[in-house]
Amino acid sequence: MAAAWIGFAGGVIATLVSSVVALRQSRMAERLARLNRELDRDLQAEEVLRRYREPLAAAAFDLQSRLYNILRLDFFAKFGDGERGDDARRTTVFRLAQYFGWTEILRRDIQFLSFPEDADTRRVAQLQSQIAQCFLSDAYGPSLMIWSDEQRALGERMIVEEHGEVMCMGYATFRDRCDEMLAPWLERMLGELGEQPAQARLLDAQHLLCELVETLDSRRVRYTRDLERA
Predict the structure, then answer these.
(1) Is residue 145 a contact partner of residue 137, using CB atoms and an 8 Å limit?
(2) Measured distance CA(210)–CA(65) in Å, rounded
(3) What are phi and psi of 159, to 5 degrees?
(4) Per-residue pLDDT tens digits for 54-107
(5) 100-109: per-residue pLDDT in tens?
(6) In angstroms, rounded to a whole number, what is the distance separating the alpha carbons of residues 15 and 107?
(7) Rounded-to-integer distance, Cα 171 and Cα 62, Å
(8) What is the Cα–Cα distance from 64 to 58, expressed in whole angstroms?
(9) Is 133 helix (H, G, I), strand (E, B) or coil?
(10) What's the domain range around 212?
(11) In total, how many domains does the chain have?
């Protein structure tokens, strides 16, 4: 009888041990699977940023350069009222829309991915958010206030596909299409670019764009030597 009970107890203990081991293995497998999914998302996010790092840096550099010319080199005073006045304003709108375009392309590819722990990658996301906030905020008044939905819409209008690649249209195409393509915003933006109340907004945006370029070109290969804060 005692032997039977010992055998029964041994069987129960063995079953419990097996259950505990199986539960621990299952939880470990779940944790490993979750970690692998997070790692895959991080790697995908890094790959997306790597793919768009150069065009985004170029767009941010071009826009901050124009803002610097406006704020410190009297760009509109020199060209805004002359025969090149319309071109001066339309090329500025193009650079702004081009930046929103590459931002929208990046957002579409990365919106369902988590940003990895890499400091530069997180800094890019933070700066893009701050630049968007700079343009949508009413703290600067209504001049050149572009709400987040409008920023996305401007970006969407700039996106084209060539040879299977998604990119922003060039200035020649923009110049041909901008009157129709940007009809809801173009007249207001052209008028407000040179207004004095817009200067504070443009100043803060230019500084943030410089930081974005420095982060994207952290090795100082292309742009950072030419950056100047207005």
Answers:
(1) yes
(2) 9
(3) -80, 130
(4) 999 999 999 999 999 999 999 998 887 777 889 999 999 999 999 999 999 988
(5) 999 999 888 7
(6) 52
(7) 12
(8) 10
(9) helix
(10) 2-226
(11) 1
